[in-house]
Amino acid sequence: MKRPVRLEAGQKLVLTANRLLDGRTVWWSAEGTWVPHIGHALLLDAEEAQVQLAHATEQAQHDGVVGVYDTAVQDSVPPEPVTVREKIRAHGPTVHPEFAVETAQ
Amino acid sequence: MSVPVGHYQYDRIDRDFLQARIAEFEGQVKRRLDGTLSEDEFKPLRLMNGLYLQLHAYMLRVAIPYGILDSRQLRKLGQIARRYDRDYGHFTTRQNIQFNWIRLEDTPDILRELAEVDMHAIQTSGNCIRNVTADEYAGAAADELVDPRVHAEILRQWSTLHPEFTFLPRKFKIAISGSPNDRVAARFHDIGILARPGEDGAPVFRIFVGGGLGRTPVIGEELFDSVREEHLLATLEAILRVYNAHGRRDNIYKARIKILVQAIGVEAYREAVEAELGQMDLEQYRLTPEAVEAIRARFAVPLLEAPDDADAVLTQQRRDDPLFDRWVRSNTHVHRDPGHIIATISLKPAGGIPGDATSAQIERLADLADAYSFGEIRITHLQNVVLGHVRKDRLRDLWLGLSEVGLAEANIGLIGDIVACPGLDYCALANARSIPIAQKLGARFADTALQAEIGALRINISGCINACGHHHAGHIGLLGVDKRGEEFFQLTVGGRAENGAAIGTILGAALPEDETVDAIARVVDCYLGRRESGETFLDTLTRLGHEPFREAAYEAV
Ligand code: HEM
Ligand code: SF4
Fold first, then answer.
1. What pLDDT was estimated at residue B123?
2. A33: in domain
């Protein structure tokens, strides 16, 4: 069962997953593709997110991703995940600066 | 090819089996990529081959049976780190190595490269009997009574792909030691085995069951005091059968053998094992002296020759060089041969990532093993590396070689020798990051003279309740918890995995991440201020109780 999403003021949802081939963290973009940079993630309201999540989950095999879910972000440019876990997924491990996900241009 | 020192020599059958297994997995990967297999179908198959999906990539866990490698194997691990990972390997508390940046597509090729040096990733995951761990000083330590590797290998062969035990209620971990000084945390394993010589010279085994960490830490209880060698396999088989039949499969948190032993009591468990033994065909499981000898013959014995003055040379070198002397004090252990010594190489540089090694360091370790220790390397359950048989008069040269690649840290058993799991920087199950706390603590106590002054003090850090960093067993333990998406750490004190195993006591409410290092520094200061001469941290803690340490930890909060 999906837990109900409670967004606070200034927050939106984004969809995320891992790429099947190499496990890289990816984000659902406005173009309907999975991209490695959270800067290109599509920001969604709670209701839109449910629709897009169902769609993206159905398409996961076709799109080459696994484990699709939604997560809250601050509605900023670029969006910043709310939890430490998703921050680390978005930016890479904090302990190897050289492994950080390059910022989106 | 000559027989490797320290580990068992594979034969044709072993190698053909590995090739078949890789071909099978390659087919599964293909079918996953083309969509024939769904993720739900594929996940258990990849886990059986040691492949996890973590936060940023796949992680491959490679088995190192009883923690022993030869230099050829270590070099291969270095090459894999360079070629398929981001130039690092991570040594774990299960005496394995993990690669954190693996691509699914590359995995069959990696497994093929591993098979070239008789290595694999089987039984590193899933509800089977996992890689058997053993004393890192096996076959070398002066305090050893029985070399546990021969029996570790017998257990490896018995447990590998055992048809009855492939789908146990939960994972199953076995550790074995042959020294009166428990260096394997025997009482924190599903089965812990301590070997010693019996009256007729053949070894007998003291067996503990139902130990474990994780959500419900439990100290293993003694099931049998003296199992004879011929009945070792039958006894283990019976213990596992009882668990397989009665362990809970309905609730993952209650599925480990420790919960079963707690539920029915160790006496009832013993009776059930004895009843099972009563109806087993013991002949079928009898471990004959000939069978044991046949395994022993597949281990080469190092030719321990040293000049008569080896010990005197070392003594003089220690006198001449205080830095070297400090390293020898903390990082060596007495060898059974007077001309040799055991060297532990710290993978805990101050401010570094516990257990991480670069491909260059890994390859250098392989070279040093060839030059100084018969090409043999051991991985410790505290995420360090051991060269087991170093000539005393050559120890300083080894130390100089280690210094060149940043591996001469003098902190084994001291506060800088921190054990930490991968935590939230990599692990999909984590609540908090373990590594940055380890790095900050390492930097805070970087001064090796200060570390020596503080004395024996183990810090263990886990990023969640699964306890991969053994926090319950740390003299000071840290457990990462998640409070509304933020990282907090719960502190425990007084755990220990050695003789007199104990589970740490929680000091109080979890602290925010940025207050944790200061709190630990105050706990250490409290100890330094109040210890009596000759006391270790645990001694002072035992004498004073937790209260002063609790007060110190929460003083500023
Ligand atoms: C990064 C991926 C990892 C995952 C997903 C993982 C997962 C788990 C889980 C779920 C448990 C609890 C099992 C239970 O209580 O039934 C566990 C226990 C354990 N893990 Fe890991 N682990 C990981 C990495 C590691 C590493 C790197 C080490 C060594 C440093 C390690 C060593 C252990 C040990 C020793 C236990 C046993 C604790 C016990 O007795 O219950 N794990 N792990
Ligand atoms: S203790 Fe938790 S965070 Fe650490 S490696 Fe194990 S599962 Fe991951």
1. 72
2. yes
Q: Chain B: residue nearest A61 by CA?
A: B35
A85 CB near a chain B CB, below 8 Å?
yes
Model pTM score = 0.90
Alpha helix locations (H) across A36-92?
A: 46-63, 84-91
Examine residue A78 and say whether the peptide bond preceding it is cis (omega within 30 degrees of 0): yes
Residue A17 to residue A34: CA distance in whole angstroms: 8
B419-554, which class in CATH? alpha beta
Beta strands B191-197; B203-209: pairing state = antiparallel
Work out the pLDDT band at B297, boundaries 50, 70, 90.
confident
Cβ-defined contact of B104 to A21 (cutoff 8 Å): yes
Domain range list for chain B: 12-116, 133-296, 310-404, 419-554
Secondary structure element (H or E) that encloses residue B443, with its range? helix B435-444
Per-residue pLDDT at B161 exceeds 80: no
Ligand nearest to the backbone CA of B419: 1
Assign domain B133-296 one CATH number from 3.30.413.10, 1.10.287.130, 3.20.20.140, 3.50.30.50: 3.30.413.10
State the complex-level ipTM.
0.89
Would you call A5 an interface residue with chain B, using a CB distance cutoff of 8 Å? Answer: no
B421 contacts chain A (CB < 8 A): no
pLDDT in tens, B169-203: 788 888 999 999 989 888 989 999 999 999 888 89
By CA distance, what is A58's nearest residue in B?
B38
